[in-house]
Specification:
It is built from eight helices and five strands, in the order H-E-H-E-E-H-E-H-E-H-H-H-H. It is α/β, with parallel strands linked by helices. A five-stranded parallel β-sheet has the order 2-3-4-1-5, with helices on both faces. Helix 3 links the parallel strand 3 and strand 4. Helix 3 (115-130) crosses helix 4 and helix 5 (170-183) crosses helix 7 (204-221). The radius of gyration is 19 Å and the shape is elongated.
Length: 236
């Protein structure tokens, strides 16, 4: 089962997985090798420690949440920790997490320079590795470029498999939007998808947020997604 942080005294903030975050709806693009590594680790491969890095919107958070979803499907508990959303939480929340099947730490650069958090992550790394549990850490930069004070943590983060997650090209973004739309029962024609990629903020996070808005608005208006209709929504 997924760790329910909403009921945890250590973490009053409720953090939930996005419903759509899975390997099935992840358009890999140039990231096929990273996806294959993660799936082998879920199946019990020897290497179960990973560091993923890349620009915002490239798909790191999607992959971390997909790992948690797969692990919980195997009836093992897992935790997704988006550190950028947990600014006031104590690093003691990591205590005992080495008993979980997987821990996925997102936005690690958020706590760089915080000695207490760096030491807590260092010890979590060691415990997860010793217990042969899956640990996936993601950040915007490779470990060598993170402004970490604890050299041992930087070293540990580079021990496992490291992979840069690369943003999709325009064709990949169109595929990702259309796949997400189909999952919602929404038809996103090729010309509309291409228009959105060309004229809207181009990272997938913002494109997906816009798609959610278009889905809701088209449902209320009982309108198909066409370029003129989409333009009126964006203008608003």
């Amino acid at each position: 089962m997924m760790v329910d942080f909403a009921k945890s005294p250590q973490l009053p903030l409720g953090i939930a997985l996005r419903e759509v975050a899975s390997f099935k709806n992840f358009i890999a693009g140039q990231n096929g090798e990273a996806v294959a590594w993660l799936r082998r680790a879920i199946d019990g491969a020897d290497e179960r420690i990973f560091f993923l890095w890349g620009e915002s919107g490239a798909g790191k958070s999607h992959l971390l949440q997909a790992v948690c979803r797969e692990i919980t499907a195997l009836s093992e508990p897992a935790a997704y920790l988006p550190l950028a959303q947990l600014p006031e939480v104590s690093p003691t929340m990591l205590n005992g997490m080495d008993t979980l099947g997987a821990v996925c730490v997102d936005d690690v650069e958020t706590v760089a320079g915080n000695t207490a958090w760096e030491e807590a992550l260092f010890h979590l790394f060691n415990r997860m590795r010793d217990n042969h549990k899956m640990l996936v850490v993601a950040g915007r930069s490779a470990p060598a470029q993170l402004p970490l004070r604890l050299a041992d943590l930087r070293s540990r983060l580079g021990w496992g498999a490291m992979c840069q997650i690369k943003a999709l090209d325009d064709d990949g973004k169109m595929q990702a939007m259309q796949l997400r739309a189909r999952g919602r029962g929404l038809e996103l024609p090729d010309d509309v998808a291409a228009f959105l990629v060309r004229h809207y903020r181009r990272d997938t996070g913002n494109l997906f947020a816009l798609l959610d808005r278009l889905d809701e608005t088209s449902l209320i208006a009982q309108r198909r997604l066409t370029i003129p209709f989409v333009k009126t929504i964006i203008d608003q």
